[in-house]
Amino acid sequence: MVGLKEELLKSIWHAFTALDLDRSGKVSKSQLKASGAARPDPARGVLSHNLCTVLNVPHDPVALEEHFRDDDEGPVSNQGYMPYLNKFILEKVQGNFDKVEFNRMCWTLCAKKNLSKSALLISDEDAFKVWVIFNFLSEDKYPLIIVPEEIEYLLKKLTEAMGAGWQQEQFDHYKIALNTSREGLSAWELIDLIGSGQFSKGMDRQTVSMAINEVFNELILDVLKQGYMLKKGHKRKNWTERWFVLKPNIISYYVSEDLKDKKGDIILDGNCCVEALPDKDGKKCLFLIKCLDKSFEISASDKKKKQEWIQAIQTTVNLLRAGSPPPHKEARQKRKELRQKLLAEQEELERQMKELQMANENKQKELETVRKQLEAAAARAAEEEKKRLQTQVELQDRFSLELEREKLVRQKMEEQVAQKSSELEQYLQRVRELEEMYKQLQEALEDEKQARQDEETVRKLQARLLEEESAKRAELEKWHLQQQQTIQMTEAEKQELENQRMIKEQALQVAMQQLEQLELERKEALEQYEEVKKKLEMAANNTKSWKDKVAHHEGLIRLIEPGSKSPHLITNWGPAAFTEAELEQRQKSWKGKKATSD
Questions:
Q1: Which pTM value belongs to this model?
Q2: Is 163 within a domain?
Q3: Do the Cβ atoms of 104 and 84 come closer than 8 Å?
Q4: Residue 75 belongs to domain spanning
Q5: What's the CA gap between 589 and 459, in Å, rounded?
Q6: Are 476 and 512 in contact (CB under 8 A)?
Q7: Within this chain, do residues 206 and 151 fall inside the same structural domain, yes or no?
Q8: CB of 247 closer than 8 Å to CB of 224
Q9: Are residues 247 and 215 in the same domain?
Q10: 421: Cβ–Cβ under 8 A, 6 or more apart, which residues?
Q11: Which UniProt keywords apply (predicted)?
Q12: Are residues 436 and 452 in the same domain?
């Protein structure tokens, strides 16, 4: 009943939207209420009473008055009428009504207002049939339209019924022009399209009318096949020509094709069968329809007609056994499901495209963040270098002051020892040499300290570059994996995502360039590290040589400044915290870590 209700609503929607509106935008109340006449004047369109009449539904004027009372609770509007229509009319429909009469009543209400005034190649009756076909093929959403796929299906059916060839290229041009402006056609635009003869050129009005009638019989009246055949009587056993009409569950036969004088029905169900009979009684092309209570002998005009009727009846019985709808209704449902599936796939593809676009934007933001971090790191490194240079200048100034003080002390000592004998002259000379050696030792220790600071700075820079290189490699691998997954998509997705892939490749090339730049920076850091290492080794060698000299003149040192007898390393800030052996052990450890990182 849900499908029947949807079909009824489409026709009622046309009639309802054609009603006159009052100044407030609501439907006039007199056009919805019942009148005393059984069939009111179409111009007035007493919709409610007419619907109850043609649908064989009992009319309830009390419920109508209650629903459409003039207050805020029951407005006479589009929203107010639909609940009444569903509750008091459509819910009571049983299916025992004439669909053609129902559609004709709705057509009468809306045709005069909407039908084109221009001359058409089809009659009003044909226009009515096209309107009913539109309601059958239109989408289940309002306002009603028929999509290009259903327009193509209908025009193909009409062209086939007219015996003409289908012009696919012409329709493709029309479809392109249609898609650029809107989603589909209304009922009246479809009538204008068929009535204009654009797709039936060379055909006369009668041929077009017969084609519309044939498609109408198939799609609306569920006529699967019809034609003249001879039927054998059950009582008199005589053969009489009848017009047979095959529908999904019945075969009706009439005196003629005008369908005015109906002679009987053959009720079909899953237990019926049809089989060919041999020629007898001077009749040829015989076949038998077996039902539970009765059998029917029928003679076709030729073997081709006989085979067509047997096949059509057997197909109908098979559909009844399977509980399937008629072929044209099943085909319409499949077309709708296919359109819904394609729409869902298109929406999913659009969603994926948006996700990829968002991912690309996020990657761009990440790259911008990395760039800013690199700039900040470079700024910090410059600041640290500035501080280091400032510290070095301060140390040099302090050492200069210490040297000045030392010179003053030496001058005083020279004045004090000037009075000593000549045998002490050699001793003083050696003292001056030792002081010079001490000065050089301090400078060597300062070079060693500076070399160690440079080594530490380069090591930190190298570690940071390695971390950034590792992050970049992980990011590139992630992009590469995403690209591999994208390549595995279907060919249709590849075409749709081609532009996105180009953008990704550009981003990948930029990232590769950044990685190469990081690699160059890392190599430069390694070269700086090697230079610092060489400086450190030279400083260590200088320190060792000066240390040997200091050890050689150890006695003199004790004369100037007594200290510990154990050979400790001396730095700018005093005795070192570790011995020479420990220093050599640490150098070996640093060399091993460097070899591992390389």
A1: 0.54
A2: yes
A3: no
A4: 1-114
A5: 14
A6: yes
A7: yes
A8: yes
A9: no
A10: none
A11: Cell membrane, Cell projection, Coiled coil, Cytoplasm, DNA-binding, Membrane, Nucleus, Phosphoprotein
A12: yes
Report how far residue 33's alpha carbon sits from residue 50's, in angstroms, rounded to the nearest whole number.
10
Is the separation of the CB atoms in 33 and 64 below 8 Å? yes
Same domain (yes/no): 42, 122: no
Distance CA 216, CA 220 (A): 5
Residue 250 has pLDDT above 80, yes or no: yes
- Does residue 143 contact residue 186 with C-beta atoms inside 8 Å? yes
Whether the Cβ atoms of residue 208 and residue 200 lie closer than 8 Å to each other: yes
Q: Are 495 and 487 in contact (CB under 8 A)?
A: no
**SS3 assignment, position 570:** strand
Closest C-alpha among 454, 406, 452, 401 to residue 571? 452
- pLDDT tens digits, one per residue of 296-323: 999 999 999 999 999 999 999 998 888 8
Torsional sign, CA 326, 15, 93, 139: positive
Tell me the helices (H) and strands (E) count for the chain, helix number first. 18, 9
The CB-side HSE value for 85 (13 A sphere, CA atoms) comes to: 22
Residue 479 in any domain: the answer is no
How far, in Å, CA of 55 to CA of 48, rounded? 11
- The per-residue pLDDT for range 84-129, each reduced to its tens digit, is 777 778 777 877 788 888 899 899 888 888 887 777 888 889 999 9
* Cβ neighbours of residue 360 closer than 8 Å, sequence gap 6 or more: 500, 503, 504, 507
In a domain, 194, yes or no: yes
Same domain, 133 and 104: no
Token pair recorded at residue 268: 């079909």
Phi, psi of 228 (to 5 degrees): -80, 135
Cis peptide before 327 (omega within 30 of 0): no
Integer Cα distance of 325 and 316 in angstroms: 10
Rounded CA separation 490/352 (Å): 14
Structure tokens at 77: 């509007």
Model confidence band, residue 385 (pLDDT cutoffs 50, 70, 90) = very high
Domains held by the chain: number: 4
Q: Is the four-CA dihedral 134, 135, 140, 142 of positive or negative sign?
A: positive
Same-domain status, 97 and 201? no
166 shares its domain with 266: no
What pLDDT was estimated at residue 71?
A: 45
- Name the band, by pLDDT with cuts 50, 70 and 90, for residue 40: very low
The one-letter code for the residue type at 256 is S
pLDDT score for 552: 66
Among residues 172, 196, 222, which one ends one of the domains? 222
Q: Which of 114, 141, 167 is the last residue of a domain?
A: 114
Kindly state whether residue 572 falls inside one of the protein's structural domains: no
Ranges assigned E (strand) in 96-236: 225-232
What CATH number did the domain enclosing 285 receive? 2.30.29.30
